[in-house]
Amino acid sequence: MERLFGRAWLVLGHESQVLAPGDFLTTRMGREPVIVVRHVDGSIQVLVNRCAHRGSRVCEGPRGHARQLVCPYHGWTYATDGTLCALPLAEGYDRSPIGVEELGLRRVPRVETYRGFIFASLAPDGPSLLEFLGPLRASFDDLVERAPAGEVEVAGGVFKHAYRGNWKLVLENHNDGVHPAFVHASSIWAARNGAPWDVWEKTGLWVARYGHSWMGDYHDDTRLVAALDHPVFREYRAALERRLGPERTARVLGELRWNSLVYPSCSFMSQFRQLRIIHPIAVDRTVVHAYSFRLKGAPQQMFRDTIAFANVVNGTASPVLTDDLEVYERVQDALTASRNEWVELGRGHGGDVPDRDGTLRGRTGTSEIHIRNQLAAWLEYLDMGGPEGRADAPAMAPQSAQRSEAPRQSRNAPRPA
Amino acid sequence: MTDSTGVSEVERFLYDEAALLDGGRLDDWLALFTDDATYWIPLEAGQQDQLTSASIVFDDRRLLGIRVAQFTHPRAHARMPAPRTVHQVGNVRVLADDGHELRVRSTLVMIEFRRERQRTWGATVEHRLRRIPDGLRIAAKRVDLVNAEGELDGIVAIF
Ligand code: FES
Ligand SMILES: [Fe+2]
Known about the structure:
Strand content of chain B: over 45%
Bound molecules: FE2/S2 (inorganic) cluster, fe (ii) ion
Strand order of the largest sheet of chain A: 11-17-16-15-14-13-12-20-19
Strand order of the largest sheet of chain B: 2-1-6-5-4-3
Helix content of chain A: 25-40%
Number of domains of chain A: 2
Mean pLDDT of chain B: 96
Largest sheet of chain A: 9 strands, antiparallel
Oligomer: heterodimer
Radius of gyration of chain A: 23 Å
Number of strands of chain B: 7
CATH class of chain B: Alpha Beta
């Protein structure tokens, strides 16, 4: 937990959730409870949600607005950058060896945004956000560029679902093209809309450094809207063309990304405007928050479609989602078996090909390369710089997903860092 | 209109609906809904909007039919085995009755057991019931779970 979630850049939310000075949201970074707050100078601050006095949680509730952050216990009062600005009976500290005015809410050392998405890292140094995201940046670009006004906003409510299993299970599932035909067999049968094997095999699957991956070339817009000449889509396309011109519009709409996975905390669907943040709670407990985005400047009907899609895919009672959760729990339970120590992750191994920007592309869309790549990153995070870490830890490269590293993983691997 | 035991037609209808759910008779339950019916479990307390705010469930009759069909498929993993439930309907109040449709509010306590785990649910339920020649049908059902905004494990039971 410390070496991975304590180091990696984690996705915390989006600027539209904290627009005005004093707007805040609370969330977690691994085990750390944090406040994401817009400071008076317009900057976004990420503060540990734990009072410097005797440790009470300072901000309560998922979102709020406050000029100052006041602890409920003894009234220590902090500015929105964490500085302690008032406390009762301050003279009681005048002989204390610790300068009480030095105390404040701990600031998370690195906070940055990319295209409006808020990221933070609990480590004071490490790769920059841009370096960390690498080619995954294009997935965020894709989400934002699809907005006729060039901006997106969080809207329409947040699903919060949980399962009794390790956090890795959901990340290992999101780019798994083999599971739908089995896990979702009943939903596919009931709704009569399965994709043949062929579609999954031909889907592009790429992995990048730091455990990231994405699927592309899956859906085109003919499957997203009733028809490309549907009036809503034509209106949307026209709005997009006003900003980008026809050529760039065609390019933006031609980008067909399915799930993009920002290891270890996030998976999102740029084309469907869904983003999920993964919160590890315990070795066998995970909470996922799922957000919808509104494309600013797009017809209102498109956002309604986004919500209808969210309900079906991320709704806590969705037959699709609940079958996924059921399988994660069965895996978690059964991995306690001790007579088989291994899981098999070799699908597509040996056939993955180097591609642009230092990525590797899976031999087919159903390669397990995305899982090998996650576990390679996991190993790397756990190995580097820790108490007995190796000074010469190898650079994290997608090649480490190759056979020599970890085609199979011990059952102990799906345990939290 | 009450029967000899003092139970009103509306209460009888809600109890019968609960019995269908507890008995696993989902096709019969589905038949209680009108063709234009909606079945709604809001995500937020006091939620007014179904189209631009996400919902735990917002099914029209077609989606509800898919949900029920899915439920009975042999590979509906999260529903194998199906949860055993007891739906306890109480505090039944008729809020409005224009002769054509009634608005009925009740409370629901539901106990669910599945895979060595028991869960307890509480909800305020609002039915819009339509009179038809042979009784009542559900034109809309809204279930406000007390923990709708919480971090919830997957919901497989039907309320
Ligand atoms: S614990 Fe916060 S003021 Fe005492
Ligand atoms: Fe799935």
